[in-house]
């Protein structure tokens, strides 16, 4: 039995539920999904400032997950906030949804497009493409120009905008696959794949399967080199609980 912690780095309980649903939809029968979010922090992550705040919440959840004996962790925000810091802290594998979705797309198509939320988050996706080495695989990036939490307002407007942008990307980009650039879009992937006739990839599901595979192969995060345990220091004030 594997217990995989899926961390929504923002504090939206509705989005945590959406993300948990997407994770459970693909999890193996012997995998239990523990969908969590920080108790304090930022309600949605839409820029560098939000990512910095969210990263602390990710580290708190990693620490809690370790104490609960989880086999591995998913960081379910498309900016992969705190990913390398989380890997220093974690024993098991830690996979971010952007990284997972991009890797998956390159296994299915020679070029992919990304459809995300606000235009100001496009640069974050571009930075990740460079960091992970996928810049030359990404044909185009699109933003629906709606805030992250519009995906949870029940109107269906954001979901329809995602659908329209995916149709446009298929028509214009020459991409063979599309990556959904927000954890809150996770439950849209299967229906869009069906409708568009090409892989529309949700990073939550991709990351859950990658963590399952890494655990099944007997791998945890390397503790040799820069991802070794954090150096022992006394953390003070608001960070004492991370000691
Ligand atoms: N590009 C994004 O929309 N990133 C995200 N912000 C969140 O709060 N969750 C995401 O996945």
Automatic annotation (TrEMBL):
The keyword Oxidoreductase does not apply. Keywords: Isomerase. It comes from the Bacteria. Signal peptide: none annotated. Pfam families: Asp_Glu_race (PF01177). Gene3D superfamilies: 3.40.50.12500. One of its GO terms (molecular function) is allantoin racemase activity. Its EC number is 5.1.99.3. The keyword Iron-sulfur does not apply. Belongs to the HyuE racemase family. PANTHER family: PROTEIN DCG1 (PTHR28047). This is Allantoin racemase. The gene is hpxA.
């Amino acid at each position: 039995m594997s217990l995989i912690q899926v961390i929504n780095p923002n504090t939206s309980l509705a989005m945590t539920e959406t993300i948990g649903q997407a994770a459970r939809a693909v999890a193996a029968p012997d995998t239990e999904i523990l969908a969590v979010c920080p108790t304090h922090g930022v309600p949605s992550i839409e820029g560098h400032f939000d990512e910095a705040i969210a990263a602390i919440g990710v580290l708190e959840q990693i620490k809690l997950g370790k104490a609960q004996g989880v086999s591995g962790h998913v960081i379910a925000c498309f900016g992969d906030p705190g990913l390398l810091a989380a890997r220093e802290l974690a024993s098991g594998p830690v996979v971010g949804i952007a990284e997972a979705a991009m890797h998956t797309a390159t296994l299915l198509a020679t070029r992919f497009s990304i459809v995300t939320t606000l235009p100001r988050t496009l640069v974050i996706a571009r930075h990740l493409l460079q960091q992970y080495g996928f810049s030359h695989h990404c044909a185009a990036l699109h933003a629906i120009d709606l805030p992250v939490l519009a995906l949870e307002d029940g109107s269906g407007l954001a979901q329809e905008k995602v659908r329209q942008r995916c149709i446009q990307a298929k028509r214009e980009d020459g991409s063979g696959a599309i990556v959904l650039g927000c954890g809150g879009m996770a439950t849209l992937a299967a229906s869009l794949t069906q409708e568009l006739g090409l892989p529309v990839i949700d990073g939550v599901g991709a990351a859950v399967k990658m963590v399952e595979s890494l655990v099944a192969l007997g791998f945890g995060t390397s503790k040799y080199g820069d991802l070794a345990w954090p150096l022992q220091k006394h953390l003070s004030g608001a960070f004492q609980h991370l000691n």
